[in-house]
Amino acid sequence: MKETGNQTTVDQVSNNIRPYYIWLNPIANVTLTAVYIISDVEYIASAHANETLLASEFISRCIAL
C-alpha cells in the first residue's frame, strides 16, 4: 500500500483491519493463516533484494495480522 504521511500508514490500516480479521477468522470457511500488510516502499526494497514472497526477510518488512 502507498503510505500518505499521517493520513494512511501501514500501522493505521493494520489496526483498523485487525478487529475484522479476529472476528472473521474463526467463522470463515477457509481459515486465514495471516494477513500481511506492506508499504510500497518496503515492497520495492524487497523486490530489489530478490526476496521471495513469504520468506522471513519479506515477512519482516510487513505487519502481520
Quick recap of the structure?
By secondary structure, the protein is mainly α. The chain is 43% helix and 6% strand.
Explain what the structure shows.
The chain contains 3 helices and 2 strands; from the N terminus they run αβααβ. It has helices at residues 10-24, 40-48, 56-59; strands at 36-37, 63-64. It has a two-stranded antiparallel ribbon with strand order 1-2. It is flat, with a radius of gyration of 13 Å. It has 65 residues and is mainly alpha-helical. The chain has one domain (10-64).
Keywords for this structure?
65 residues, 3 helices, 43% helix, 2 strands, mainly alpha
Mean pLDDT: 85
Characterize the main sheet. Answer: 2 strands, antiparallel
Strand order of the largest sheet: 1-2
Ends: how far apart?
Answer: 15 Å
Low-confidence stretches: none
Approximately how much beta-strand content do the residues carry?
5-15%
Kindly give the count of domains: 1
What sort of overall outline do the alpha carbons produce when their principal axes are compared?
Answer: flat
Number of helices: 3
Amount of helix: 40-55%
Radius of gyration: 13 Å
Beta strand count: 2
Order of helices and strands: HEHHE
Which structural class should the secondary elements be placed in?
A: mainly alpha
Secondary-structure map with pairings?
Blueprint: H1 10-24, E1 36-37, H2 40-48, H3 56-59, E2 63-64
Antiparallel strand pairs: 1-2
